[in-house]
Design a protein that fits this description.
alpha/beta, globular, 8-stranded mixed sheet, 7-stranded mixed sheet, about 675 residues
Length: about 675
């Protein structure tokens, strides 16, 4: 038997936070040593941080990355460790994994495939490394191997697939198999999205089986740079079997997951493979030989660990809860904010944001304990006196209900009841007099009284905007992070008041649709996350039809009355924006899915969506940063770009109207006479 303990570290790094990133990396080294790990894989670009963006093109950032690598390298004594950093060569920058062996730099492997879709923007900063090319990097009089390499470390062959390299059809592992590689390390910076973890599991398992190797997958953890949330989730597989799976959505700075592998078994699986006879020694120049002695290791039994909630039938609800809670917790501490402020209307969106803020405390307390929370948030005054998670929530979360004459006791009671159930600090502002003052000032200036018949939108918007200064003032007084409460469905059609309900420094639910939010609130009300209690007080929220409460009460305003049913809106948005369908194509698709609506009603709603989408790009450009929790985000800064000024789909909407007219004529001619 050739037994080697391999490990994967997940790390909560921060772009350009050199000293903390270095400390985290060295902590991973020590955690690996305590577990007896010999081969340890750390995440992609863990030295600099993955989310440095245009700072990757700063010569100072590149120099500092190299300097930190030199400081880290000696600490890898008696281990083989991969760390990631941006590396300049021939006046361009590459995304590289550096292999450290026994305290020395053995060489650098450069990433081949650079993701440029969705939230990813790597081709802006890095260049892809050509397949099969090897060169030498000279720095300060020393030469280092660089390029498409693999390493023979004391008789064990180690190679890399760097994040995206494993997601493409022509992944490097196929060629590495022909070289007889024993271990493939995958240092990744793979952001969370619903269902994405299962894809990672498949390519890790299949890579280990098809290539006959032990496969080590590491990832980033937490809210690294503001928008993307990383779920960690280290994976270790060998010969098509999962040996270990690390915790996801951890609130810790770092976790190391390890497993014992028998390299003789992987080598025998390669010997039995049909691809064995294709191997040759013609590419031996790509192998870097490094001396290394492996410790003797005793065999053991091992089973992969799993979080209980991952087998839950409500996996999406669990993932959403834990991803956004972790994102909020990290955003709070990395921005040095001293709490959260929420304008709590008693409706679904603001209630969801308040619940997620409280859940961030409960989930972190469940994992870290009160001492752990106080250590991470120790800069916040008064937190050291808190003894329970509920007391922490009271200190961190401020909820404010702001009423006008159009507000109802239903929403007031819902807001008060929920804030009390969560343990938040709850306040009420009556802003009706402020609304009257503004309306009076403008009425006098324009020389006429404003009326609902003539000035509906303006009178709605002033109420939303009047609520902004007070909550901002309170957030400033408490050094708190003001959370905006708009969702993705509203962002798609601009059903929001700029400088009103969109005001805030962070918009945590702007990436999620309203239909799912309502479903999630029902789940939170009745079931709740694994290990935590449900929140029955949400019953007064979920029982309501969503409403902005901006028109007079006798008009019985509802969101869906202003727009369209939310499940239909979300279906139109996905077809139109995610799938890039024309209005006619969207209509034909929704006609099949929503037969309960008339042809004309569906066509009107489809046209309404496209017109509102086109008119409101400027609003989406101004939204506070949002979290990416699925691959259907509308954030124009990182995901979904659309011109602020456009033709508004006039030609395409005319095509829809003509199609509907033609179908109506056909139906009339084919119907039997009365």
């Amino acid at each position: 038997m050739k037994l080697v303990r391999i490990g994967a570290a997940v790390r909560n790094q921060t772009p350009l936070d050199w000293e903390q990133n270095k400390a985290n990396i060295l902590a991973s080294f020590e955690a690996g040593r305590r577990q007896g790990v010999t081969l340890l894989c750390l995440p992609e670009l863990c030295i600099s941080g993955y989310g440095c963006e245009d700072a990757f093109l700063s010569p100072g950032v590149l120099r500092t990355s190299w300097a930190v690598l030199q400081e880290i390298a000696p600490h890898s004594k008696d281990m083989i460790v991969s760390v990631g950093l941006p590396l300049p060569y021939n006046n361009v920058v590459f995304n590289t994994a550096c292999l450290l062996v026994d305290g020395r730099i053995a060489g650098f492997v450069a990433k081949r495939y650079l993701p440029g879709e969705g939230i990813h923007y790597e081709p802006r900063w890095f260049k892809p490394w050509p397949v099969g090319k090897r060169t030498t990097l000279e720095v300060e009089g020393r030469d280092y191997p660089l390029g498409d390499l693999y390493f023979d470390c004391g008789g064990v062959k180690i190679a890399f697939e760097i994040c995206e390299d494993a997601w493409v059809a022509d992944r490097p592992g196929g060629n590495l198999f022909l070289k007889g590689v024993d271990v493939i390390m995958n240092p990744s910076g793979s952001h969370f999205a619903f269902g994405k973890f299962r894809v990672r599991e498949r390519f890790v398992l299949e890579g280990s089986r098809a290539f006959g190797v032990s496969y080590v997958y590491s990832n980033l953890l937490g809210n690294e740079a503001g928008r993307a949330i990383y779920d960690g989730g280290a994976l270790l597989a060998s010969g098509g079997k999962m040996l270990a799976a690390g915790r996801r959505f951890s609130f810790r700075d770092q976790l190391v997951t390890s497993a014992l592998v028998d390299l003789d078994l992987t080598r025998m699986s390669q010997a039995q493979s049909a691809g064995y006879d294709q191997r040759s020694g013609s590419e031996s120049s790509q192998c870097v030989d490094v001396e290394f002695s492996y410790p003797e290791v005793e065999p053991e039994n091992q089973d992969p660990d799993r979080d209980a909630w991952e087998s839950s039938k409500n996996l999406k609800e669990e993932e959403f809860t834990r991803a956004v809670a972790l994102g909020l917790f990290d955003y709070l501490r990395k921005s040095r904010s001293q709490g959260f402020a929420v304008s709590l209307s008693g409706g679904a969106d603001s209630s969801a944001v308040a619940c997620l803020s409280a859940l961030a405390v409960h989930l972190s307390a469940a994992e870290l304990g009160m001492d752990g929370i106080k250590e991470k948030l120790g800069y916040i005054p008064g937190l050291s006196d808190c003894r329970t998670a509920r007391e922490v929530i009271k200190r961190l979360l401020t909820c404010v209900y702001q009423s006008t004459r159009n507000s109802t006791s239903t929403t007031r009671d819902a807001a008060c009841g929920l804030a009390t159930a969560l343990g938040a600090d709850y306040l009420e502002f009556d802003v009706d007099e402020l609304v009257d003052d503004y309306v009076g000032i403008v009425s006098q200036a324009v020389g006429r009284e404003l009326s609902w018949e003539r000035d509906d939108i303006a009178l709605q918007n002033i109420q939303a905007r009047v609520r902004a200064p007070g909550i901002w003032l309170l957030a400033n007084l408490r050094n708190a992070l003001l959370l905006a409460t708009s969702n993705r469905s509203e962002a798609a059609v601009g059903y929001t008041t700029m400088d009103g309900d969109t005001c805030g420094g962070l918009s945590p639910i702007a990436g999620i649709d309203k239909a799912f939010l309502r479903q999630w609130l029902l789940w939170l009300q009745k079931d709740g996350p694994e290990g935590l209690r449900p929140i029955p007080a949400l019953g007064s929220v979920t029982a309501q039809a969503p409403t902005a409460e901006l028109r007079p009460q006798d008009q019985q305003q509802t969101d869906e009355g202003d727009l369209m049913p939310y499940d239909l809106l979300d279906a139109i948005e996905r077809a139109a924006i995610r799938d890039k369908k024309t209005p006619l194509e969207v209509y034909r698709l929704t006609r099949i899915r929503f037969p309960e609506y008339s042809r004309q009603q569906l066509a009107d709603w489809v046209e309404r969506f496209f017109r509102l989408w086109s008119r409101n790009q400027w609003k989406r450009e101004r939204y506070a940063p949002s979290f990416h929790v699925d691959d259907e985000n509308l954030d124009p800064k990182t995901w979904c770009r659309f011109p602020i000024l456009s033709g508004g789909f006039e030609r395409e909407l005319k095509e829809l109207r003509e199609y509907l007219k033609e179908r109506s004529l056909q139906a009339a001619h084919s119907s039997p006479p009365e």
